[in-house]
Amino acid sequence: MHNKLSYPAIAARGLGVDLGGREVLRDVSFTLAPGEKLAVVGPNGAGKTTLLKALMGLVPRRGDVMLHGRGSRPAAFVAQSSDLDLDFPATVAQLVTCGRRLQKKTFGWFRLTDRQAASRALTRVGLDGLESRGIRELSGGQLQRALLARALVQEADILLLDEPFTGVDAATVESICEILDTLTDEGRTVMAVSHDLSLVRNRFDRCLTVNETVIADGHPDEVLGPDGIERLLFSH
Amino acid sequence: MIDWLTEPFAYDFMRRALLAALIVGALAPAVGVWMVLRRMAYLGDAMSHATLGGVAVAYLLGVSLVLGALGAGLIMAAIMTVLPFHPRLREDAVIGITQVTLFAVGLLIISKADTGAVDLSHLLLGSITTVSPADLRIDFALGGVCALVLALIFDDLRTATMDPQHAASVGVRVNLLRAILLMILAVVVVLSLQTVGLLLSVALLVVPAATARLWTRTAFRMTVVASMIGMVSTFLGLTLSWHVNSPPGASIALVCVSALVVSFVATMPRRVAQADQHLPPGSLSGETPM
């Protein structure tokens, strides 16, 4: 029987990605234990988002990726909110319910249990009462929390978040951090891309600096010290 | 008033026309909702033009013109599914290329085949009053299958249209879904051959959906309202054409557009009020707009 706790949550070995004829990522290797909270840091265009997509299998990749010892997809991905079409006519509850896609039949509709799960997730991120509001009517911070709720309803053990703290106020950052702390306390694994170095130092256990490949991997205080930043910026 | 509305349907051929019109009037806007929401409204127009090539080939082969149109529609759907995989070919360019190619093939064949004796105008402009019981059976069968498939993939369409990236991450086969939608579109365009004709089929695809968008806040309600507008428009258009002796297709299209104009004016106060309350997003809570 497959015991997911006996495997790393994420194990990447020799991971590489080519997009549009350009090598975006090369030879990325790291492992992440269940319950760890990892920040991914790097300059613009360093391949951070591509790394998350490669782990999810959303872009063609080389190398090996195992999530809890399997090649399949027990992870939830929170993309940047700019990927969402805000003109689409949908309520917040419908947005979050979309996260239940893996729990429903391929040809079929979401059920009451899916809508109830969405409602619970909205309560968890502090958006209860906004179920029937249109997605266009949410503020930036509310939208980011709704996207987090959409990931929570997937009930995945691994959460991959692409810049969840960008464009939101301090209160929302704190709220998202508290939710991520709760998730790791429950044994779930969190990997988030962030540009906020002080936030990474204060709220993450581990930091992976990336610039087409892994530059450093360790505690944020070590990786993001003056030497670490210099290595990251001048790694080409 | 009741007499004015019911008088045309005292005849068998008009009752058949009404049934055919209602099938297309309900189905085309339901498909059109996804064309509008995916910003692919132009594709409906392109698809209708492209079917001309299939019509011409079918005439040469001596088979059903509707089958020819359906074949061309499905070919266009297949090309539209495959070509955009090339990273340097944008979707709007592929639509234009495919439309022009199939339309040109149709014109070429028609000009060489000396089809002067064949009246293709009933396919271009519609000929709903000539619908036979056999046509109706085909309309019911094809329309029923399309409606069923559309209903079954509704939640996945919503997931994939709202956020394709997320949809792929939760197992939605985004490209397969798009291919299915294009095939349904091809069938609907062909069904509308007899009602409003190829040239005006885009009216039933796009206008009721755009009208419904003005009134509704969810994709499901938008679909229901668009289909209702489509059915009412086809009924009124058909009745109007009987009384004023106008082409049914053009009458139906103009009733659709009238509904859009009325809806635009009627919803204007609500839009102004919403703009006052909600713009810019986030301004009420003091958070950064996104």
Radius of gyration of chain A: 18 Å
Low-pLDDT residue intervals, each spanning 5 or more residues of chain B: 280-290
Q: Tell me the β content of chain B.
A: under 5%
Query: What's the gyration radius of chain B in Å?
Result: 20 Å
CATH architecture of the domain at 1-74 and 201-236 in chain A: 3-Layer(aba) Sandwich
Supply the CATH class of the domain at 1-74 and 201-236 in chain A: Alpha Beta
Number of strands of chain A: 9
**Strand elements of chain B, count:** 0
Mean pLDDT of chain B: 84
Assembly type of the chains comes to: heterodimer
Topology pattern of chain A, helix = H, strand = E: EEEHEEHHHEHEHEEHH
Describe this structure in words.
- The complex is a heterodimer of chains A (236) and B (290).
- Chain A has eight helices and nine strands.
- Chain A is α/β, with parallel strands linked by helices and 236 residues long.
- Chain A has a domain at 1-74 and 201-236: Rossmann fold (3-Layer(aba) Sandwich), CATH 3.40.50.
- In chain A, strands 5-6-7-3-8-9 form a six-stranded mixed beta sheet, with helices on both faces.
- With 290 residues, chain B is an all-alpha fold.
- Chain B contains 14 helices and no strands.
- Chain B is globular and about 55 Å long.
- The interface between A and B is large, with 44 and 38 residues.
